[in-house]
Every structure is written in C-alpha cells, then in structure tokens.
Amino acid sequence: MISTNAYGTYSTNSSYTNPIVWSETAEAYIYEKSVFQAFGIINLEQLNRPGRQYNLTLDTGASLGRLTEGVATPISATSFNQVTVVFYGYGDAKQITDEQMVTGEAFVGATDRIYTNALGAWSENRDSVIVTELMTTSSTGIYPNGKASGTIASTDTFNTVMIADVKSTMKTTQARQLQAIVVHPAQENSLFKLPNFVNAGQYGAGTIIQSGEIGSYLGTKILASNHITTATENGITVYKAIALGLKPFVFMPKRRFSFQIGIENIRERAITFHYWEMFGTSIYKDASVIVLTSAGGI
Fold this sequence. Notes:
Number of strands: 12
Helix content: 10-25%
Number of helices: 7
Order of helices and strands: HEEEEHHHEHHHEEEEEEE
Low-confidence stretches: 1-18, 201-210
Shape: flat
Strand content: 25-35%
CATH topology of the largest domain: Major capsid protein gp5 fold
Mean pLDDT: 84
Largest sheet: 6 strands, mixed
Number of domains: 2
C-alpha cells in the first residue's frame, strides 16, 4: 500500500514517487531570511522563459516647462536606458547511502535536515550574490570623520554622522530617499556603543520588522549582515557597509528553487538530494547604492 502522503507537495514532505518539492511557505522563508532582497525590485518577467540575459528598460525622469499662451506645447525626446540582467544557476547535491540509513540515519529525518539546510543555503547565497553586484556601484562612497582610503585609521569607526550624510546625499539624487543601511557586525558593534543610536525613544524605533534589523536611526532601518565585505586600506581592515535608496537593484528569478530526491542506480545503494535555482540580479539605480567604509569597533 502507498500512503497518500507520498503524493504531497508541501514543504515538509518528500517521497520516492513524487520527489520534487517547492512551496510558497519555503519561498517566504527564504525571502524573510534574506537581508537584502526586501529592498530591491522583484521582477518575474523572465520566470520559466528562455534566454541567458534580459535587457530591462529603465526610463529617464521627466520634467515640466512653463507654457506660453497661444503656443503649442513643445515636444521633448523620450530616452530610455537599459539594465542588463544575466541569469546563473546555483545549487548543490547531497547523498546518503543505504548503509547509512540502515545503521542509524532515518530517511525522513535525513530529508528534513537536508531540506532545512538547503533553505538556509538558498537565503545566504542570494545575499552573497546581491552584495557582489551592489559593490560594483560607481556612486561616490562615504568615509567617517572626513577621512579617505589613504588616511583612514583604526579609530575611524562607523558612526551616526555617516548615516546623516548618506541620507542627505541620496535626497539630492534619483535615489530620492534612504531606505536602509546594511552594516558588518564589526560596524554594528560601533553603533551599539553610541548613546544616540541605542536611545530608541530619542532617535529610532523599538520595532524589529526585518530579518537582521538591529534598529533604526533618523527614520532609516539599520541591518547587520556577515556578507558585507572587508578590505585593507591604509594598513588596516575596513568594512564596506551598503546604503540602499529607492529601487537600488532588481532581482529576477529565472527558475524557482526546487528540491529533488532521486534513487541512484540500484547497485549504488544511494539516494541523492539535489537542489537548485536560477536567477539574475543587477543594480537598477546606481545613485541608490552608496558604500560606507569604516574601521570596525571590535
């Protein structure tokens, strides 16, 4: 007899007869655990469609002029820019032998454990890929205390003045406003030591509504992520926080993630767990991505 549960497709189920698992619950989990994805544009135009890359149209801003009575409204040219998104596949595979299951690794337990780890890996990978793309921005970066790459010192740690500076900078560009800043844990440590940051009643808010969020300052969400990159400048380790304005990047799924279970050749006595997805990401508005470089506070 075959249990009806063998044909389920919900996130915690798996079987030999229906081995492909995808669920909205799992997708929500990955989305919520990703620090960066919530601040970009999610575009589904290329989901399950052919093509290695896609040119996304980015229209330029319009402006108005004063009209003269009795004179026809003048016509100005319409111009468009393009954002190129290239798609890549990301995945991994695990294998459990029949001997492992016989000697103590239950199939259901192994499946749940590998599936849970896969969800975490998907979320981490998305953040890693997005950060790599965001670091290609050509926007002018900001350093603390008026320093630059060649003069920054270990005492030039992340501070709230940098938040105010990048907030004002974005208001003068197409970024329009500052949504969030994602800092390295070493920069997070510096902020926690500043009274004007931890005093939520005066400057911030006490609610935590996004994975990785450590608070807010001047109406800006502050989040921490291990995916923030480091570098060596002026002989010290510096951390490259990322400030995000409106529409900083686009995330385009090409193939939704899938988790598949399959029996290998019967003589190999093994079961393979394979999981993968395909997507592309690209900076959408360069002015909405600014790197904030500082020393760490640890």
